[in-house]
Amino acid sequence: MKTRKVLLIVGGVLIAGFVILQIIPVGNFIPELQFPGNPPVVQAIQWDSPQTEDLLRRACFDCHSNESEWPWYSHIAPVSWLVMKDVNEARRELNFSNLNLRSSPGRFVRDVEEHIHTDMPPQIYLVMHPNAALTDAEKQQLLDGLTQSLTASAAGSSPTTASTGSGSTSGDQETEGSSEKDD
Ligand code: HEC
Asked: How far apart are the first and last CA of the chain?
């Protein structure tokens, strides 16, 4: 009978703790952990093909876009903290809904290439989203498609993209391969 009592107390404390976690508005104290929602897409990329878009949506968009899908567990603390931190950080670094290239498309794609072969998407994400794991062929297809899409828009071939005056996405160089400046 004594063990039963101890178990009841431990269980009660655990449940109370869990409930309290849900109630604390952690995001109010730590902006990183705030639920960012899905703000409007600022500048959609003109994809070279539906396949390129599909690959990026499948593997990257949950974190690196304003079109994230939020599974139920992403709202349950403490998992929610991890998810919010990842998405807030990821969007700040790179947001395909508002791609503000700080370097040439070539350099940007090389950066993506480096990460796609090492740590992107993050391992923990793949556990919950096995569908986001890309084969080597798919990674290559994504990189090629991204290059195509970005060089096309950098060349200004599509006047349909909203031109935000302050943006620095104007194509100053369309030459492929020779872009070793800035930074
Ligand atoms: C689970 C969320 C998540 C997913 C999915 C994800 N990323 Fe990331 N990504 C992050 C976070 C968080 C960072 C910033 C911290 C870091 O570098 O680890 C980041 C950083 C990056 C960076 C570095 C940006 C810079 O300039 O430093 C690149 C490039 C990148 N991700 C590419 C991708 C690509 C490509 C995909 C899809 C194949 C992808 N990521 C999928 C969370 C994610």
From this structure: 69
Q: How remote is the CA of residue 97 from the centroid of ligand 1, in Å?
A: 14
What is the spatial distance between Cα 152 and Cα 99, in angstroms, rounded to a whole number? 14
DSSP secondary-structure letter at 135? Answer: P
Closest atom of ligand 1 relative to the 111 alpha carbon: 29
Q: How confident is the model at residue 58, as a pLDDT? A: 98
Q: Which atom of ligand 1 is nearest to the CA of 86?
A: 12
Long-range contacts of 135-139 (CB under 8 A, 24+ apart): 138/55
Would the CB of 110 count as within 6 Å of ligand 1?
no
Overall pTM > 0.70 = yes
With beta carbons less than 8 A apart as the criterion, state whether 139 and 46 touch: no
Lookup: tokens for 121: 């998407």
| pLDDT < 70 positions in the chain | 1, 155-183
Distance CA 132, CA 125 (A): 8
Q: Is 122 in the pocket of ligand 1 (CB under 6 A)?
A: yes
Q: How far is the CA of 30 from the centre of ligand 1 (A)?
A: 21
What letter represents residue 83's amino acid? V
